[in-house]
Amino acid sequence: MKKTMVASAVLFILPFASATDLADPGQIKPLKEFAPPKPITPTLAQGYMIENQFDRVDRMQYFSVTNPINNGIAPLKISSGFYGKNFYNSLLSGVREAKYYGMVNVNFSKANNYKDAKGKLSGWGYERFNQAVVLGWLPNEYNEYRFSFLHDDIDDDEQPQHQIDALNTERHITRLNARFGLEDLSNTLSSEFSYRHVERRADNYSLRRSSPQTYVQLERELFDFSVKHDVDLGKFHNMLGVSYQRDEHNGKRYLHTPSRDILNGYRFADINVDRTRLFDNLTYTFNEQHKLGLGLSYEYHHARADKFNAYIPNPNPKMAGASFANARQLWQYYFGQDFKGKVDQNGFSAELKYDFTPTELQQYNLSLAHIERIGDNIERFNSLAAIVVRPNGEIANQQPANAVVGNPFLKPEEHNYVKFDFDLKNEFYKGYLNSIAGNGWNIGGSVMYDDVKNLIILDRARGQSGTINSTGGVIARNVDAKLITAKLHTNYNFLQHWAMGVKGFYHYGKNDSDNRPLYQIRPFELNANLDYKNYFAYGSYNLGIAARYIAKQNKGDFDRTSGLGIDNREAAKSFTVADLYAGINFKDQFGIRFGVNNLFNRQYAEFISGDHVMALAPNTVYAPGRTYWLSLHATF
Asked: How deeply is 621 buried, as exposed, middle or buried, from its count of CB atoms within 10 A (0-12, 13-18, 19+)?
């Protein structure tokens, strides 16, 4: 029963469990995403650590004997801890009965300024208050209904890498799920409705001193509905579905003055996007060892910019009759095409996947795919620049390099990739630090080669292919590119109480059209953990050490005269950082987790820059120096 409830909570922001959705365009993400941090879902809340976009060590994945206290369901769970000068607290209450379940979570984060290894203050910090509710009803084995709600409020999110801070980000996420049919998907209809509302305000004066003072106000509403039917037909399994999304996105920029606030541009000129997707997955199981799947997907986007031609008056008396450039004028200025207010695009995707499972201890997968991704709102409809249009139509570009202009004329990306995955283990391995009657081992990984036509990138206007402008502002354009990713992990349990894990990551990205590296490509990374677990009269304890090595990134987009220039050479240096950590579990009721991050006080910066705001020329922000932390966990 607990397993079912945990799964429901994990799926708080996801649909019900379903067959693999092959050929899903959503699996392809932009080269660099800019967005607030991911919501804190109930199953993450009790073991959560303070999020820091300038320190990407995934410490929540470290082994701890306190995990059983944080996981599972109980009338009350408490987690409270400090991480250097930062604090995190969470309360969770859950119940599970035969025909219903429920979960409520409240958590609060207070991130304060920290010093790097050389003692310099970073200028970082935020406050975050998060609440979540999950309610489920199972009247019988053929039906399940679930309601989920999450509210996430982030205040004073300081951005030392950029010239503007995210003063407030508030998200409301509501989701309704229904299942009609058995949970094994043998003949099951699943539906989902979700509503997401996001409001965000960013400025350059509330948390710092800057002039002129400006702010951006963003609002976005997304309505999603999907329905799909799974059915077994002998050795075939088919999943047929349709989804629809309504996306309403508006963003305004203002000049803040003592007398009044002056609208001087639309970041998003009242964008309305209707996305419709039809998809089908057909799987044939030859026998226990061999399975073949085919996925097909068709996606249609109808997008409008309702304020693309809005008149934005310039009140400066020295420029009588002038106006600030609207979205239509910006797109004409940068791309030489007249936008008529709407654009329609479609994409077709297909994926073929072969699964080979010779034994229950071995699994191999091979995928061949053609995936088409239509650009997102930032890539297509961003429209901010300091451009004034005089009454005679003359253009005055006041800050050319600071413009950020999306491209509504972009072609969809076409990804043509081959991917191989494998996972092997011996008969003793049941999980990390969990082996029976002998030393257990597990090894797995994946490699993918992706030949991309019309990859969407951000670049600077230099009159190259895709733009008629050469003023150096940021634009979006299509290029052909190659992407390679490889991942390898291995775990080894030995001497009953010991385990060692190693993970390696390799990424490669090249812009073939311009014969230069792509930006924000993750450098080679190697992570290693050594853990010890044992028992005592009142419970269990663990000790661990972790090391993370990042290689120097020699291939980057460092020069804004030839590329975007988002990569930073100072952050491209290699480094090795080590952590110590430990935990004590008192009979699965009370626990203590503690450790030291950056044990040797190394000065390092992440090559992948901060992404809470759209910082395209980021300053280098170093990670925290040596940091002591401790958290308490309890279940009642």
From this structure: buried
Q: Which of 123, 110, 209, 127 is nearest to 159 (CA)?
A: 123
Cβ-based neighbour number of residue 288 at 10 Å: 10
The DSSP-derived string for 566-611 is ---TGGGS-EEEEEEEEEEEETTTEEEEEEEESTT------SS---
Is residue 1 over pLDDT 50? Answer: no
Compute the distance between CA of residue 549 and CA of residue 554 in angstroms, rounded to an integer.
Answer: 15
Residue 545 in this model has a pLDDT that exceeds 70: yes
The structure's pTM equals 0.94
Helix or strand (DSSP H, E) at 422? strand 413-425
DSSP summary character for residue 409? T
Residue 341, sorted as left (phi over 0), alpha (psi -120 to 50) or beta, turns out to be left
Distance between CA atoms of 151 and 129, rounded to whole angstroms? 8
Radius of gyration of the chain (CA): 26
How far is Cα 475 from Cα 375, in angstroms, rounded to an integer?
13
Q: Whole-angstrom Cα distance, residue 88 to residue 83?
A: 8
Strand-by-strand arrangement of the 387-389 sheet: 312-313, 323-324, 387-389, 395-397
pLDDT (tens digit, 9 = 90+) per residue, 516-531? 999 999 999 999 999 9
pLDDT for 19 = 65
Question: Do 124 and 161 form a contact (C-beta atoms < 8 A)?
Answer: no
Residue 8 burial by Cβ neighbours in a 10 Å radius (0-12, 13-18, 19+): buried
DSSP letters, 8-39, are HHHGGGS-S--S--TT-GGG---SS---PPPP
Question: Does the pLDDT of residue 17 top 80, yes or no?
Answer: no
pLDDT at 7: 36
Beta bridge partners of 23: none
584 with 69: CB under 8 angstroms? Answer: no
**CA angle, 42 then 48 then 49, to 5°:** 155
pLDDT at 437 over 90: no
Write down the residue that tokens 């207010």 correspond to. 341
Helix (H) or strand (E) holding 505: strand 498-511
List C-alpha distances in Å: 352 to 20, 72, 298.
12, 37, 15
CA–CA gap between residue 548 and residue 57 (Å, rounded)? 8
Tens digits of residue pLDDT in 305-332: 999 999 999 998 888 889 999 999 999 9
Residues 6 or more apart whose Cβ sits within 8 Å of residue 515 = none
Return the structure tokens found at 539.
Answer: 């419970």
In percent, how much of the chain has pLDDT > 70?
97
Q: What average pLDDT does range 446-466 have in this prediction?
A: 96
Angle (nearest 5°) at CA 574 between 568 and 578: 125
Residue type, position 266, single letter:
Y
CA distance 317 to 363: 72
On average, the pLDDT of the chain sits at: 95
Q: Could you tell me where the DSSP H helices lie in 42-159?
A: 42-45, 67-70
Q: What is the mean pLDDT of residues 432-452?
A: 95
| Torsion angle (degrees, nearest 10) of CA 499, 593, 10, 498 | 10
Tokens of 144: 């399940």
Three-state SS for 438-479 is CCEEEEEEEEEEEEEEEEEEEEECCCCCCCCCCCCCEEEEEE
In sequence order, what are the residues at sequence separation of 6 or more whose Cβ sits closer than 8 angstroms to the Cβ of residue 397?
Answer: 385, 386, 387, 403, 471, 473
